[in-house]
Specification:
This protein is of the alpha/beta class. It is built from 21 helices and 19 strands. Helix 4 crosses helix 7 and helix 9 packs across helix 14.
């Protein structure tokens, strides 16, 4: 029947590559595979969808095909057969590599079904060798459908005949953070800072007694004049309640005077990898990148019940859109253990690939143990941040931003690095004087930090994933990666966003097999003003956000 591992139209993969990485059988030899009971193979590979292709609809699991795995020859190759009517897949699944003869069919059925075998053979009879393929196909398919408790006709009726897809996967998300945002002020789409304030007032009125008010989603690029706001109105309206409102990209925020007071932030405060904006000796409330931590760390952590509530709300919204697997880019040990506990208790069903936040506590706990994996959780990545974002002008560039000074941005508190082709370094001053124009953005840590982190991870199975948006930040991270990856490899280290790349650095991705993890949403969010930030020439090195890309 042409059980060739390559299979016409099929894509052959090694059994250990498929099941060892994604299934629950582990890596097994061909002999061990053939010896497995059919029900065990079915349970392990199809009772729940594989990690890479999960999906549900109204509680029903949606695997890729009724039977995808079969063995051929002695090479233990496993083609991925798509389509529900593959005779080769179905009968080979039942017979597990044995010839489709009448003798083998009866022997397998009696072995697999025991006391129920005669009943099965009455329902699925075969009288000649020529009938075995068709009968075994029907039996294998019905075994699958019965085990998973759903039928295509049922799904078809539930969807009104609309297409049914495997669950979608988001390779770069902030699932836990999204859940928290659902219980804060929604500022997305605000057309002015006046609208932002109005939304905060409405939220506060509907949630009396709050000790903190937080929100996210404002974007000054949508405001008249495109300038950063200040906190004057927030100070007047919320004199005794701390308010912290994060920008759409998470790389800047505006805090009211009460929040700044609790954080002990004073005019002129300087710190590595962040900016505290001051105008005429007064705090405006604008905090960029690492400066936000000064306020965030004052907010009490969520209780276990509140954390659960937020995760379940995020899951509900994601499932409603068909999103069943997410990569959460940057979690703490406490957050991970909370998610793991909920998943093990059967309360949280989202599949999550976790990038650890780049903290000493996380690295000291997880690196010695190696990646942590369950059916629903895979802790294998490490998330670092090289720079900020273009929208808040924290992305670290080789040459100055084109639009600084044209929108009233940080005229008196701009970070001024030395002019060099290497871009700024993190230990340069945060505040400049007006006689030194130019704003390059900044790195969030000293360059030595990224070198140290890469060196620590190079000998492990963890995947390093570094946020880098500006061409200076990307050059630094690419250089570090190439230093420790030493040529082509399969470690799959990533650069998150990789938005502005100097043309001289393109080849550094391929040399070390670095994955540019580009988020397409930046094309629509940044395209209206990206040219203003970096100019037409640098847009050529910007895959996301370039209207021509």
């Amino acid at each position: 029947m042409g059980l060739d591992a390559g299979g016409e139209g099929g894509r052959a993969v090694r059994w250990d590559a498929l099941v060892g990485s994604h299934g629950r059988l582990g890596s097994r030899s061909l002999a061990e595979l053939r010896a497995l009971p059919a029900e065990r193979l079915l349970e392990a590979t199809q009772g729940r969808p594989p990690h890479d292709f999960p999906g549900t609809i109204d509680g029903y699991f949606l695997p890729r095909s009724p039977v995808e795995l079969f063995t051929a020859g002695e090479q233990a190759h496993v083609p991925l057969l798509v389509g529900w009517n593959s005779e080769e897949a179905s009968y080979a699944f039942l017979l597990q590599g044995q010839e489709p003869t009448l003798e083998n069919y009866y022997s397998v059925v009696r072995e697999r079904f025991g006391a129920r075998a005669e009943q099965v053979l009455r329902l699925y009879p075969a009288t000649t060798d020529a009938e075995v393929v068709a009968v075994a196909t029907d039996l294998a398919s019905d075994m699958f459908l019965g085990y998973t408790t759903w039928k295509w006709a049922d799904v078809h009726s539930r969807t009104g005949g609309r297409p049914v897809y495997p669950g979608f996967i988001d390779a770069h998300a902030h699932f836990a953070g999204y859940g928290q945002s659902l219980f804060a002020v929604d500022l997305f789409g605000s057309a002015s800072f006046e609208e932002v304030v109005e939304r905060v007032q409405k939220f506060a009125a509907g949630h009396p007694g709050l000790t903190w008010i937080t929100g996210r989603g404002w974007d000054q690029n949508k405001f008249p004049g495109k300038a950063f706001p200040d906190n004057t109105r927030l100070n007047a309206l919320f004199a005794n309640v701390p308010v912290m409102l994060q920008r759409v990209d998470g790389h800047a925020a505006i805090a009211n005077a009460k929040a700044l007071e609790l954080a002990g932030v004073k005019p002129g405060r300087q710190l590595t990898g962040g900016t505290v904006e001051t105008k005429n000796g007064r705090l405006t409330g604008i905090l960029i990148d690492n400066a936000q931590r000064l306020v965030w760390q004052q907010i009490p952590p969520l209780s276990s019940a509140d954390y659960t509530e937020r995760l379940l709300a995020a899951e509900k919204n994601c499932f409603a859109q068909g999103l069943t697997t997410v990569t959460d880019c940057g979690l703490s040990r406490r957050e991970i253990e909370g998610i793991d506990s909920l998943q093990r208790a059967g309360k949280l069903h989202m599949r999550i690939y976790v990038m650890l936040s780049d903290t000493r506590e996380n690295l000291e706990h997880y690196l010695p143990k190696g990646p942590y994996k369950t059916d629903l959780l895979y802790v294998k990545g490490v998330k670092a941040y090289a720079d900020g974002a273009l929208g808040s002008r924290g992305a670290c560039l080789l040459q100055p931003y084109d639009d600084v000074g044209k929108t009233g941005f940080l005229k008196n508190v701009t970070r001024f690095p030395k002019k060099s082709d290497d871009g700024p370094t993190a230990n340069e001053p945060t505040v400049r004087s007006d006689d030194k124009p130019g704003w390059y953005g900044f790195l969030l840590n000293d360059p030595a930090h990224y070198d140290s982190l890469a060196r620590a991870l190079a000998g492990t199975d963890f995947q390093l994933c570094t946020h880098a948006i500006g061409d200076s930040a990307n050059r630094l991270i690419l250089t570090v990666y190439n230093k420790y990856l030493s040529g082509k490899n399969d470690k799959r280290w990533r650069i998150e966003h990789a938005q502005v790349i100097n043309e001289k650095d393109f080849d550094l991705f391929g040399k070390a097999s670095v994955i540019p993890s580009v988020q397409p949403t930046h094309a629509t969010s940044d395209m209206y003003w990206a040219g203003e930030r970096v100019g037409a020439r640098r847009l050529k090195g910007r895959p996301a956000g370039n209207p021509e890309a």
